[in-house]
Amino acid sequence: MAKKQIKGEDGKTYTVKEAKAWYKRWWIWAIVVVVLIFIVPALVGGGGSSDDSSSSTKTAKTAKGSSTKKEASSSSSAAKTIKFDNGTRDIVSEATYPVSYSDNSWAGTTVSIDKARVIQVKPFKDDGDSKTYEGIVEVHFTVKATRDISIYPSQATLITSDGQQTDADGYDTDNFDGDLGKGVTKDGTVRFELPKLTDAKSIKTLRLKWSGNYDTDDVDDDGAYKDYDATITLQN
User: Fold this and answer.
1) Could you tell me where the DSSP H helices lie in the chain?
2) Would the pLDDT of 204 be above 90?
3) Is the pLDDT of residue 167 over 70?
């Protein structure tokens, strides 16, 4: 503090210390510095955090919108198809039915059908065929032989409830039948092509005809040949 001399009422001269102005005190400025160091950055940081939060929210919303658009595009582009020997067909609609058909009336052989699938596809033509097809029918067979036989579900004829008749597609039907030895069990899917099909659920019944036989030296054995004629109802 600065010193100052003043004269008292008693006529004597006194020396007194003069107080400094507040802005001349060092500790005032120390406090100001501390405030600047700790408080101001906090205020600035809070504002930055708000901006970051707003930016993050905006980014999240954008990402969510992009993701939804991508999923929708993926869903629309991932059309279902069915594979053929010479390519694929685009599926329009389809219906799969559980079936409980079983026949063991011939030669100790059990023939079962457990599933049928009706498929409407975009119209197509097979190679070298002038016909246009709109539908596919698939029938899953299981054959269990208890003696040597020959049986041919893969060459079956199909008659549908809407009056169409067609033979099995030899190229795209599983090769599972023919000559089967005693104790052999085979299964496979027989495929048929339909010229017309406007709705996969429009067909109510399937009539299937195929044959079987076995070798015998008995000329009186009337059971050596078998013509199967099975009608299955399509319902869930």
Assistant:
1) 26-77
2) yes
3) yes
Task: Report DSSP state, residue 22.
Answer: G
Tell me the pLDDT band of 127, cut-offs 50, 70 and 90.
confident
Phi (first) and psi of residue 187, to 5 degrees: -140, 155
- CATH no. of 81-233: 2.60.40
- The residues facing 167 across adjacent strands are 157
d(CA 234, CA 236): 7
For 172, the token pair is: 């795209």
Q: Which two tokens stand for residue 72?
A: 């929708």
Whole-prediction pTM = 0.66
Question: Do 234 and 205 meet the contact criterion of CB atoms below 8 Å apart?
Answer: yes
d(CA 236, CA 94): 13
What tokens were used for 223? 């059971």
Domain boundaries, the chain: 13-76, 81-233
Token pair in block for residue 110? 């059990």
CB 117 within 8 A of CB 97: yes
